[in-house]
Structure formats: structure tokens, C-alpha cells
Amino acid sequence: MSRAPEFIALSDAAVRAVAGANSRHAALIEDAFGVLVETPGGGVSVSGDAKARGAAKKAVQAIADRADQGLEIGEADVRVAIGQARTGGAVGSPGVAGSPLPVGKRGQVAPKTPTQAKYLGALAQCDLVFGLGPAGTGKTFLAVAHGAGMLLRGAVDRLIVARPAVEAGERLGFLPGDMNEKVDPYMAPVWEALTDILGAEQLRRRREKGEIEVAPIAFLRGRTLSHAFVIVDEAQNASRAQMKMVLTRLGEGARMAVTGDPTQIDLPNPNDSGLAHAVGLLEGVKGIGVTRFSAEDVVRHPLVERIVRAYDADAAKRGRTV
């Protein structure tokens, strides 16, 4: 079987993206498929047996397509492209219906996997969306990006983020500081995402004007949230009563994203978690979308995907489903 090099003509931006800093991206592709990737000028050359070349070319083209759209390419993008080329899944820059996402500090925010694209499509089409899955799949970041985009376009008046504050094992009333100082430590991932998308100065201004609000789930009781995009993060740690309460806060012109990992429940009684219970009751109801992420959607460090797979395998052995 021929191992002759095959040349793929690409733009300069795409060639740089495929190669990566210090040829790191090219090395990942070479290790994954057992090929040789070179950039002789005007494109990329892939050497290896025909099957390996074919798979490597799919990954190369997926990376090139994203680069040509002006998207920043990191190692996570390269690993996603490699994974999809290996499994025979849809490879390329996933499309998504709906309004465009904002441009963050690292460039245009865009889905990296087909499941992320499906999730964004649901956020654009449904008033209430559940995003379920392991850490590192982008479910919170994309919900924040979508909500920030709606706020910037004037589609909503406020962006409200709620999260159960159960991790520290302490009552908020006994923590020092005002409300923001009490709950900000629990919201670090959300603030990081908002800072990346809006920038620190615009985030500060919008918080001061009340356009961006953070509150523990319990503080939403008795309120009607109108013309707002509401994110309920770490929802696996909301009780069934809290989940019913927060879901019924939706008012006129409001939309909501509920994100969480049903395998990471920190409540004293895991059976009281409201996330899986709510999904079981509401999936299939008109206007409600459910997107389930898996290890294949992890876009953090490659070790995170392997960790998730190991825990999934352990859960399967014990006969548990999530």
C-alpha cells in the first residue's frame, strides 16, 4: 500500500493552525494516526499508509476550516478533530442555527463538537434548555456566551446566574462581606467565562447597572424573572424543591439554561437532587430542550476525557445510569 506523501493546499492561516506553535498540533496528528505531517509551503503534506492518510486528512481539513473562519485553534480543537476523524463522526466546524455568538478575548466563540452545536441550537430555539454532562464539555461556557450575546444584542434586559452554594459546607450568612463577596467564590467559572467574552471593564459596568446579576438559587424565591436570560449552573446540587422553584420563576420574555453533571452530586442525600428528576419529568415537553454531553465532548486537558471515561466505566460496572 502506497505511503507516498499527499499534498493538501491550504491558506497560510490554515497551515499555521495545522502546524501549531513549535509544530505541536502537527505532532498530535502524527502521533494519533502514525503519519508524517509537513508544511512545505502553500499547504500540508501527509505521508503514511492510505487509511492513516485518509483519517489524518479529515482532521487536517477540519482544523483548516475552523482557521479559515477566523477561529482560534488550540490543542483542544485539534484533539476534537482527531477524535471525530478516528470515529468516523461528522468532522469539521459544526454549524449552529440561531444568532451568532459574541467575540471573546480568544476570538469568535463557536462550537467545537457536534453536541456543542446541537446545544447552541437548542438554546436558540427553546425557552428552557437542560445541558447535562461531565466537566470540560463547555456546557456552562456556551450558556454564558449565548446569554451574553442576547444581552449585547438587546434581546434580554438582564443576565442572571444562579448556583447552589453547597460546596463549602457553610451557610452564606456566616461568610464575611456583602452578597457579591459571599457568592463570588462559588461563581468563579461563570465570571471567568463572562470576563473572557465581555472583558473585565464591560462586565464591571454591566454588573453595576444591574444588567448582570448573581444570586444563590434560594435568593430567587418569590421573584418573577422577566426579559432575562437565566443560567442555573451546577444544578445537580439543587434539591427537587429548589429546582421546581427556580424553573417556575420564568416570566415574560425570559429564557433559561440549566447545566449540571448528574454524577457529581454534593448534596447530603444524592437522591434529593432535582436535576435528573426535572429532566425525567420535562423531557419532551414543548419548548424544552435537553442536550447530553459525553466524554467525546471534553475540550479541556486530554487527561480529563480519560478520567471521565474511567468513571463512566466504573458506573457501568455498578449498574448505575445517569
Give a concise summary:
The chain is built from twelve helices and eleven strands. The protein has helices at residues 12-19, 24-33, 50-68, 75-87, 114-125, 139-153, 179-183, 188-198, 200-208, 240-247, 274-282, 302-317, and strands at 6-9, 36-38, 43-47, 103-104, 107-108, 128-132, 158-163, 212-216, 228-232, 255-260, 288-292.
Task: Summarize the helices and strands and which ones pair or pack.
Elements lengths: L5 E4 L2 H8 L4 H10 L2 E3 L4 E5 L2 H19 L6 H13 L15 E2 L2 E2 L5 H12 L2 E5 L6 H15 L4 E6 L15 H5 L4 H11 L1 H9 L3 E5 L11 E5 L7 H8 L7 E6 L13 H9 L5 E5 L9 H16 L5
Parallel strand pairs: 6-10, 6-11, 7-8, 7-9, 9-10
Antiparallel strand pairs: 1-3, 2-3, 4-5
Structure, explained:
The structure is a single chain. The relative contact order is 0.12. This protein has a 6-stranded parallel sheet, sandwiched between helices. A 3-stranded antiparallel sheet has the order 1-3-2. The chain starts with 5 loop residues before the first strand and ends in a 5-residue tail after the last helix. The chain has 2 domains: 6-87, Ribosomal Protein S8, Chain: A, domain 1 (2-Layer Sandwich), CATH 3.30.1370.10; 103-317, P-loop containing nucleotide triphosphate hydrolases (Rossmann fold), CATH 3.40.50. By secondary structure, it is of the alpha/beta class. It is built from 12 helices and 11 strands. It is globular, with a radius of gyration of 22 Å. The protein has helices at residues 12-19, 24-33, 50-68, 75-87, 114-125, 139-153, 179-183, 188-198, 200-208, 240-247, 274-282, 302-317; strands at 6-9, 36-38, 43-47, 103-104, 107-108, 128-132, 158-163, 212-216, 228-232, 255-260, 288-292.
